[in-house]
Amino acid sequence: MSRLMLLLAASVVAGCQSPLPAVNPQMAWVDFSTPFPNDKLLMAERLDKQRLRDGRFFQVTPGSHELIVRFDFEVPSGGSGLMSGPSERLCYLTINYDNFEAGQRYVLVGQSIAFTPGARLYNAKREVVAEDRDTYCLM
Known about the structure:
The protein is mainly β.
């Protein structure tokens, strides 16, 4: 049993370290960024209502797409007078963009202000081309 667990753990670690695929010039590439230290994780969850196997990026055909990302970030803990550290909040953000262009790179930036998450999609000129339109948080 422990050998099976070791093999499973090794395969999970290897999957996290696999290189990103080559950029396809016939598609648009979407990278992720979280500029603030309390913004822990931003990763691809769904593309056009289909779950993705690799959450480190989106690579999409030209045209219109719906992107759903998972966004984990720290929020201040409320307490009953006790000192406690921050807790994490898990949210799913939906971004729609109608004009993805082949061969272009985009950056989806996730950021939080207190309990409120947000995301903006930037093109290669650093212009905002889309913002999250729907947010669902678990905590």
